Amino acid sequence: MAIPALTLENITCTFPARGARGTYTAIRDISLAVADGEFVSLVGPTGCGKSTLLNAAAGLLTPIAGQVTVFGETLVGVNRQAGYLFQADALFPWRNALDNISVGLEFRGVSRNEARAQAADWLKRVGLAQHGAKYPHELSGGMRKRVALAQTWILAPKILLMDEPFSALDVQTRQLMENELLALWAQAAKSVLFVTHDLEEAIALSDRVVLLSAGPASRLIGEFAIDLPRPRDVAEVSLQPRFVELHGAVWHALKEEVTKAHERADV
Amino acid sequence: MNVPTSDTSRPPLRRRSLLPWHLLLLVIVFGSWHVLTKTEVLPPFFFGEPLVVGGRIVDWFVTGKLFPHLGRTLLETLLAFLVGTGLGLVFGLWLGLSPFAARLLDPYITAINSMPRVILAPIFALWFGLGIWSKVLLGVTLVFFIVFYSVYHGVREVSPVVLSNARMLGANRRQLLRHVYLPSAMAWVFSSLHTAVGMAFVGAVVGEYLGSDKGVGYLILQAEGVFDVNTVFAGVLVLTGCALLLDWLVTLVEKRLLNWRPAAAGSGTQG
User: Which chain B residue lies closest to A61 (C-alpha atoms)?
Assistant: First the structure.
């Protein structure tokens, strides 16, 4: 078997507990591998440490135990092979759309003109050719996500880490963005680790759905191969009987954890 | 610029230019001053007379007697402003990015900041003489802390998401400073510059007032020596005018450099 694009081995992450002494364990002993070109979704109840795991994979957070391997090499520092799409707005507010897309290339030492030329191309590809001179606050939520997508994608990362990137969008925009993501992903097979709390989104997009237990000390509680045919349309795929079947199976496994998370939150 | 044009359907009051009302208020204030001193309800000897004050200012400009003094004061202000802002920016970035240095220096910075620095003016005069530099230094000590605290807090409040994003996009430490911390801090710097300009002015004038051979503060001091209240007021008004002008210049630069920020509520440019 080929070397996986991303491997997480026995990852444990802790944070200093609030107020009291001691630590809060966000995730405990999680192992997960993403094959080259595979689309994996990470699903779990709110507060289960999904983002923590993603940050560990990105190298933004050093786990207290365990190691992250990227194409067979142990990760030290920031993951250079990965692009990260954040849940919150992460665009540079002082740069317009075009300069936001080109910024990664500039960081890598590409000349400004060359970087801007490539960025203009990407601006067109995400359908914002007319909006290059606008600043983030002048763009709609969906447009900002497109810019963020182009900003990440222009660097041609082999791995894409996505932290509920579309959760703030309305349903229509969201389905549009999900389809665009799938189209882009199909063009250049990348490995994707996609974090979401939305089961339907996870099933519609992924090759594999991985479930996390409720926090603290979340662990993996199951995984499901999604054998729906590709290419998919996220709006239509949910009508297929197989989708409904899978959704039922995953939801059954997840329900218990969601209930647990709620009970804990109530205490 | 985008001044709202007069419309048949009147825009809400807060969007209309209030200039006529501003002017009216000014006329009322000076009018009452004039009437009260003319009728000697307020003794003109202590309160001055607006017409005489105005005449003094016109006279200063016509004869050109004011210019060397005003030039000196403005030069001191400008130098204090530039040096203080530069130092504040550098130290603010440094301490904002280095938690150890920040914790080490914190009690000293707090102590120096709470010290009444105007008291230092005579010491600066001893060290640097009655010339320009003792005033500049006084202004710097006032400006520095305003800009320093703004930048320091600005750096610490950089959006962690933007920061993480920049790191994921491959920014090294220097690039983070140049492309994330600095632009983010600039918004804070500019909000402090309005106060900083005023403080630079205070430093210059107070410095002159406590001992100098030239400057508007010196003019005021001379006039006070002979109980010439009108000249004192004339000096104060000239200084006020200059401060307003400087503040307006800062706003102008701010608008150019911070055009990426959302417009203030109620004056959006988008339809």
Answer: B164
Question: Do A215 and A253 have their domain in common?
Answer: yes
Nearest to B162 among A92, A108, A152 (CB): A92
**A93, A136 in Cβ contact below 8 A?**
yes
Let me know whether A241 and A122 are in one domain: no
Query: Which CATH number is associated with domain B72-257?
Result: 1.10.3720.10
Please report which helix (H) or strand (E) contains residue A68, including its range.
strand A65-70
Q: Is residue A1 part of a domain?
A: no
Whole-structure pTM value? 0.78
Question: Do A69 and A13 lie in a common domain?
Answer: yes
Is B260's CB within 8 Å of A93's CB?
Answer: yes
Residue in A with minimal Cα distance to B170: A107
Tokens representing B92 are 């603010």
Please give the order of strands across the beta sheet that includes A220-225. Answer: A82-85, A159-163, A191-196, A39-43, A208-212, A220-225
Number of structural domains (chain A) is 2
pLDDT digits (tens, 9 = 90+) for B25-54: 999 999 999 999 989 888 888 888 899 999
Q: Which amino acid is at A256?
A: E
Tens digits of residue pLDDT in B149-180 = 999 988 888 889 999 999 999 999 899 999 99
The two three-digit tokens of residue A23, written as one number: 């630590």
A116 and A59 in a common domain: no
> Could you give the ipTM of this predicted complex?
0.87
Name every residue whose Cβ is closer than 8 Å to that of residue B54 and which is 6 or more positions away in sequence.
none
